Structure formats: C-alpha cells, structure tokens
Amino acid sequence: MFTKKSTATLIKVTALSVTISVLTACGIAAPKIEIAYAEAALQSARNADLEGNAGVQLKQAESKLQKAKEEMQDGDNATALRLANEAIADANLAQAKAQAGIARSSEGDMQKSLEMLKTQIK
Amino acid sequence: MKTLTVKKLLIPAILATLASGCAELQKSQSLLDAEKAYSHAANSASILKYATPELNTANKTLVSAAAAENKEDMASLAYIANTQIETAVSKAEAQQSHQNTKALMAQKEQLIVAAVDAKKASAQNQLATMQQRVVSMEESKAEREILLAFGKIEFVTGAADLVPGAVSGIDLLAEYMTTHSTKTIALSGHTDSSGSAERNMELSQQRADFIRDVLVSKGVAPESVTAIGYGQSQPISSNATIAGRQKNRRIEIKFNN
Questions:
Q1: In this structure, is the dihedral angle defined by the CA atoms of residues B58, B62, B63 and B65, taken in order, positive or negative?
Q2: Cα dihedral angle (B45, B50, B54, B56), rounded to 10 degrees?
C-alpha cells in the first residue's frame, strides 16, 4: 500500500506535528517565580508604606497579582506572566512612593524644627 | 506547465506570509508616551544623580517593548516601563529629600553651636564684668580705709617724725600697693602756717618723702609712688586754732588709677 518513500514522508510529517504541538504547549511556563517575586515585592511595599502614601499603587499591584494568579490557574501563562511583571513594577513603584513620602515628611519636620529653633534663638 | 503555475503562485504567497510575520509591530501610543516620559526623566539632573539604575532598567524595558512580537506584550512592557520611570522619579525625590534633610540638620546644628557659643561668651562677659565690679568694690573699700587711716596720721610739730602709733595707715597702704602692683599713688605733704613758709615747704617735702621711704622699705615699688611737698600753701582748716593747725599738718594720698 505504502511505498518506502511515502512512509518516510509520513514519519517526517508526524514528527514535525508532534514537535510543533510540544513547543506550543510548553511555549510559556507557568510564571510561578514571577508571581512569588511580585508577592514579596508587594509585601515589602506594604511594610514600607507607614504613612499611607502609596495606596493607589498598592491596590494596583494587588489587583494585578490576583489576576495573574487567576490567569495562571486558567492556563493562560502568557497573560499571567505579563500581569505578574506589571504587579512587580507596581509594587516597586508603591515602595518608592512610600519612601519618598516618608523622606518628604522628615524634611518637612526638620524644616519646622529649624524654624522653631530660629524663633527661639531670636 | 500546470506544476509551474502552482509554484509561481505559491512561492510569492509563502514569502508574503513570512514577511508579514517578521515585520516589526508599529509602536503603540502607550509606548510612545512611555518613551516621551523617559526622555523627560533622562533630562532631569536629580534623576540622573539619584536614580540612574532605575532609569537604565526603564530604558531596557522600552527597548524590549519596541521589539515586542505582539500587541499585548508591547502594551504590557510599555506599562512596566512607564511605571519604572515613575519609580525612578520617586526614588530621586526621596534621595533629594534625604539630602535636604541632612542640609537642614547641619544648619540646625550650626545654629545650636553658635547659640551655645554666644551664651558662653555672654556668660563669660557677665562673669568678667561682675568680677571686675567686685574687684573695683574691694579696691574702693580698701582705698577708703587707707584714706581714713591716713587722715589720722599725725606728725610731731616741726619734724618729719610720726607720732608714735600712727603707722596703721602706712601699713595698710604698703600692703595694698604690694598686692596691687599696677596701682600708682601721689603723696602730697602739707604743713600748718607755724614757722616760715620756706621751712614749711621743706618740711612738707620731708614728710612726703618720709612716707614714701617707709612704703618702699615695706616692699612698694619706688616708681609707683611720687612725693611732693606743698608747704603751708593748701590749708584745709583754719591755722588760728590748735585743732585747725593739726588738720593742716597732713599727708594726702591720691590714687592715680
């Protein structure tokens, strides 16, 4: 029925199909590391936000992280990875905003303290 | 012939498909906005000074976004780049605030040190003034006592000898002069009108010199005492009575400083 040539062609085509299928399925791994990293960054930002300067960014990071987890559960690893990376960026921004707010407060306090001292000295 | 036609049609179609697959995506608006935000941040001296690593990270993300293979990746990377730029801005703000706080603290410390120094100087001045006052008061008191004692010094009429027991004023003065070495005094000798004016002039000089010699013998520096006789020329009381004449026979002392 099959000639030697046609059998070889069939094997080649099958191997290619299997390779493509495997590659597609394993194209993007579940972003577990990114999600864990985002969780750690978020926790660090929460700890840093003592004065509540980064509420918006914290909520954004929390929301993105939650969606990333859901997408990963649903098997959409590509979207999950994007969301996890965005959550990391949001958490880093939240931490930077928190620290900038605290630094600004300290500067303001020092300014007030200096003015008070000047008044006392006069 | 048929095969050739199929090949002619198929090859350009395959090439066109490949070409469209490899073509770069057009930059999205969000990516263009992120690139604009990056340029703005990269021109800030404060961000360059305090947040260069964060800015470099954002730049790498922008490069990845521009090379993204699909719109979703491009949008996500543009968002991340934009967030990283904002992070750089916040980091720079925090660092700038830290620096400002340090400068304010240094300014405060300088003010405190200056205020403490000024208070110290003021306290030292007050102390010095008070000490000077006490010294002046003590000196004035001592000088008053000496003057009082000198008023009681009596001389034997017609001689430069002291009445026995009239030495307390001289002792006080000698002690005072030796302990206050910068002080200088002027001694002036006076007589009553008994006897000739010429003799009285001589006598008054002898009396002043006598006191000066006694002081020097008790350790007073000779150059700090001058002695001048004025004879009977400067009476302080009437020469018509015994009591008046006694008052006129006197040694006056003047503290120069």
A1: positive
A2: 50
Tens-digit pLDDT profile for residues B44-77: 999 999 999 999 999 999 999 999 999 999 999 9
A86 touching chain B per CB within 8 A: yes
Q: Given this model, what pLDDT does residue A73 score?
A: 97
Alpha-carbon distance A79 to A68, whole Å?
7
Strands B185-190 and B225-229, sheet pairing? parallel
State whether residue B188 is helix, strand or coil. Answer: strand
Give the global pTM.
Answer: 0.61
- Rounded-to-integer distance, Cα B191 and Cα B193, Å: 7
Cβ <8 Å between A99 and B100: no
Nearest CA in chain A to B65: A82
B248: CB partners within 8 A, 6+ apart:
B190, B191, B192, B193, B232, B235, B236, B237, B239
Beta bridge partners of B187: B227, B253
Euclidean distance between CA atoms B254 and B234, whole angstroms: 15
Are residues B173 and B225 in contact, defined by beta-carbon separation less than 8 angstroms?
no
Positive or negative torsion for Cα B193, B198, B202, B208? positive
Interface residues on B facing A, Cβ-Cβ cutoff 8 A: 54, 72-73, 76, 79-80, 83-84, 86-87, 90-91, 93-95, 97-98, 100-101, 104-105, 107-108, 111-112, 115
> Can you give the residue ranges of every domain in chain B?
152-255
CATH of domain B152-255: 3.30.1330.60
The pair of structure tokens assigned to A105 is 């407060």
Of B46, B91, B41, give the one whose Cα is nearest residue B62: B41
Q: H or E element: which one contains B52?
A: helix B52-66
Nearest to A82 among B54, B76, B108 (CB): B76
For residue B184, the one-letter residue type is T
How many CB atoms are located within 10 Å of the residue A111 CB?
A: 15
